[in-house]
Amino acid sequence: MNVFKMHVKSLTKDIEIDDLFKEQWPFLVHKHTHYEIQFIIKGKGFHYINDDQFVYDSGDVFITLPGESHFFVFGEKTAVRIIKFNEAFFLQNFQNKDLELLKQGLFSSHRKIRLSDICRKNIGELITLLINSHKKASLYQNLIVRNTLSLILTLLMDETKLSLTRPKDEKIQMILRYIRENVREKEKLSIQRISEHFCINKNYFTQYFKKATGITYKKYVQEYVLNMIAHQLVHQDKTLSQLAYEFGFSDEGHLSRNFKAQYKKNPTDLRKKVKNERSDYKS
Description:
The strands form 2 sheets. This protein has a 5-stranded mixed beta sheet with strand order 1-3-8-5-6, covered by helices on one side. It is built from 11 helices and 10 strands. The chain is 51% helix and 19% strand.
């Protein structure tokens, strides 16, 4: 799929299933008009949903809602299975009372779900059934697919009672929050400053960060900054010079080289392409 496709993604069917296995998340920050369940099959890294940030690992599950913006930063090669469905699915499969209960359980707050071993096994088998039924045309295909997804959602809701997201390490969560809050002040993100701020030995800090997150500190900061810049290029009217200055690059050429290395496109190409796609969409 094209990385620079329009940043509002719509679902054309009631249910779709995608598998992704890559070294790097291939999409920019985007919103979609449907619900998504993202199963982390393998890998470590970060998932951003609106202004919330989560460390992910194999076995984690995320749910994103229509209208939310999100993106991943892969710390290592990551396999994600994504199940997409729209509001029509709920209306077809749940009575009002059960629907409200389900939505309250799953969508009342931004959280990831850490599956227990038993739940992971059960849901894994259901996903296999869902995929096979989704591919195979039969008289009862739609009924099997809808009921299987309904059961997956119900099991996830039940699992949230046992496993609400709690930071595994309060200090790394504080470090990540510090980075987000100071991302435009490059000097505050030096290893010297951040290690002193959190009372961690400078020589140990990079090892600690990699062990806690699965990604190097340098790579994390670089990818987070470039995703912020990509988002502003699409949604704001700032010039490259302004963005370079704001995020601590020596000049716009320095910014463009780093951006191209990450996304294989120049930032001006991104802005122009998205502008043209929006014009086509409006027409």
